[in-house]
Amino acid sequence: MTQVTALSSDDGLASNLAPQGRRDWFEWVVLFALSALAFAVLGGLFLRTIVKGGVVTGGDGFLVVDPLQYLNWLRQSSQHLAAANLYDFGPLNYTFVHPGILLSGLAYRLGAGLVLSYALAKPFAIAALFFGVMGMVHRHIPRQSDRRVATVVALFYCAPAAAVAGWMLEPGAAAKFQLDFAGGETWTGSYLWGYVFSAVAVGLVPLGLLAWERGRDGQPKMVVLAAACAVFAAWLQPWQGATLMVAIAVTEAIRFRSETRSLGAVVKSAAPVLVAPLVPLIYYFVLSKTDPAWELAGKANDLPRWSVWVLVATLAPLAIPAVWSYRRGGDRWASAGSVALRMWPIAALLVYYAPLGTFPFHAVQGIQFPLAVLAVLALRDVLKAKPLGLLLGVVLVGVLVVPGTAYRVAQMRDAVNAGLQPFFLTSDEQSALRWLDDNPQPGGVVTENYLATVIPAYTGRQSWLGADSWTPQSPVRRKQLDRLFAGQLTVAQARELLVRKGAGFILEDCRAKPGFFATVRTFTSAVWKRGCVTVLRISGIPAE
Question: Which of 234, 313, 428, 469 could cross-link 300 (Cys pair, CB 3.0–4.6 Å)?
C-alpha cells in the first residue's frame, strides 16, 4: 500500500505525527460505508422487486426525473455521441456532449442494460469522493484520531437543521423545503443517489487542488493532472470547475505577495489549470444561448437563491468552528495548500452568488469537505496536545451525521412508498415500452405524467411531456393531459391536442378513466394491449 504522508501541517506537528506504513484500517471501513451508501437505494429497489414484483427503472434519487434524463442522454450518446431534447415533438438538435454520459453510453452500446450502464459510473464517483477527501485529510491533518473524525464528518455530514425542521414543521412549510433543499446539496448521499456525475465532479475538486499544489512545487506532470481534474469537473458540472478555478486563482494571488516565485513560475503552474476548464464552461454558455432546449432549461432553473439564514443554518455546525482556522499565526497560511483549503469554501460561495449561469445551488456541493477539515483543525487548536477521545468523536459524528442521515433515509423510503414517481414499472408497462422500442413506425408518444419521463430512455422516442425544465409550457401540457386521460375533453379538443406533427402513439398505463377511450376512438386504433396497458396508434398525423 502506498505510504501517505502530510506535506505540511496547519498546527506544525506534521513531521512528528504524519502517518507511516499502510493505510489505516478505519479508512477501508469508511470506503465500505461510502460504497454501501452509494448502492443502498438501488439495492433496496431491486430487493423490493424480488419481493413484490415489477421492474426497476434506474431512477434512484429523490427526484427520479433527473436520473431518467441521464438514462435518456446515455442512450442517445451511444448512437449519436451527442444528445438532444426528447421531451418535446420539435426538431432534434444533437448538441449536448458529456464525458460521463459518453462512457455510460459506450457501456450501453457494448450490450450493458440502461440501469447497469449508468450504475457503472458509481464506482468512479465513490473513488473520486473517497480519495479526494482522504488526500485532503492526510494533507492537512497529521493525527490519526483527528483524521478519522474529519473523514467521517466530511464524507457523511448531513445538516442537522434539515432533520430538525423536517420532524417539527408541517410538510408544506417554506422553511422545511428550503432547509431540505440546502441540506441535500451539502450531503454526499444526494450525489450518490441518482447524480453520480455530480459526485465525480465534487470529488475532482480536492483531487485537483492536491495535484495543483504538487505541480507548483516542481512536478510538471501534476500540473497536467490538475488541469485534467479542472476540465472534467467543469464539464461534468460547471459549478465545481468554477470553484476549483477561483480557489486556485485567489490562492495564487495571495501567495504571490509572500513567496519568491517569479510571475513566470506562477503562470507555468497555474495557467493550465485556469485556462483549460474555460473550454467546457464556454461550451455550456454557448449551448444555453444557441440551443432552444438549453435556453428553456436555463430559464426554468434560474431560481432565487436561498435566504442567508438557510445557508447559515445548514453550514453552521461546521462553519462556526471552521472560522477559527482562518486566524493568522502558526502554519495556517504557510503553504499554498493551506491557503487553498481556506479559499475553497469562499470560492464556492462566490460562485454561488455570482450573477452567472443558472441553478446556483450546486455551487455549494462539496463545501462540507473543507469546512469539516477546518473545523477539526480548530478543535485541535483547542485541545492542543490532548488526544481527541473516542467519546468526543462519537458525539460529533452522532450529532453531525446520524440524525440527518436517518431523516434522508426516511424521506427516500417515503418517496418510494408514495408511488408518485416511476421508481418501478409493471411487467406490462415494460412490455409496452419494449414494443414501442422495437416498432419501426415513427412518431413520438403521448402518455400520462407517471411514464412520460421514462419514454425517451426506454423507447428512444420523443415524449410530449417530460421533465418540467425541458418541456415547453410544461404546466399547460400537464393540465391538458390530465383532462384528456380523465375523459374531460371533447372529441374535437382531443383531436386538436393529439393529431399533431411528431406524434405517433398514445401509451395508456391503466390510470385513464373509461371516458378517455370514447373520446379518442374516432382517430386512434389499439395496436398493442396487455392487461390494462394499451398502446394506441394516432391516425391523421400531418406530414413532416
Answer: 469
